[in-house]
Amino acid sequence: HYPLRRQRQMCIRDSVPTQQLDLTLHLQNGKARGISGYGGMETYEGAILGARFHDDNLAHSLRSFSAGLEWTNRGALFDVLCSDPWLFDRDIRGQLRYNAITRELDGYDKFETGLLASATWDWSAIDQFTVLLSTAQVHTNALELALSDLGETSYNQLRARLSWLHDRRDHSTFPENGWYVENALELGSAISNQPSAYVKSELSAAWYRRWQNSGKLALGWRSGWLVPAIRGADLPIDIRYFLGGAQSFRGLDERQLGPRNNNAQPRGGNAYWLVNAEWTQPCLLYTSPSPRDRG
Q1: To bridge 54 with a disulfide, which of 66, 109, 229, 265 should be the other Cys (CB 3.0-4.6 Å)?
Q2: Which residues pair with 190 in a beta bridge?
Q3: What is the pTM of this model?
Q4: Is 245 helix (H, G, I), strand (E, B) or coil?
């Protein structure tokens, strides 16, 4: 009934058919509950400190529960997460998450609290579908931006999102060869004094190639399109796109690429595309292990 965290393995040599192993496995149950902490430094968030409690076998059901608190120089995050690896007794991973977050961004700050439910189904070895439903109460406050740049400042955001991932990479975390494409469609609404609905469509893809005894080439594409239901409507700033920083365009600071107001402050946009090419060369003191050697 408990997740297995540690295991011991011993091979018993015996007369067995060729290319077969006769193994005796000795398994030991690990602790399902625990408390962890972490800390670090990031160029945009500043100092980061966090702590988390987890129970990987909630009520002996193999469902997991965790709760955590994180603080950075830009705000704080509290979240509670429950997950079920066999939702409805099928090969579907389900998650239910509550979070409350306060953050100071460039030009404005926000407080958000909400509930999110998602289900992920591996349709095949290379195709994955995810359905997401969420509701959140959002409050924003102007700092350097004008109120007119924020759009609605207090609203309830409802959204439904469907995404499809087709993954032919040899490793999802450290790919050496292969490619993937992911497409997502989102329907949402910001409910306030003036409700505004929208449609989001996003596409990302990447191709990887390792040359023997040399480096690795990676080509990537990301794009997004945000369409308000009412033509010309100014959606809340927290729904718009911002680019710049380590995860998008490294030539500019975080969230600094895109449309700006009259005071040259970024206010976000309704569409973007990003293309990147990257060459990774192993250094002399370290050689990246093959995907088979990684845990």
Answers
A1: 66
A2: 157, 196
A3: 0.81
A4: coil
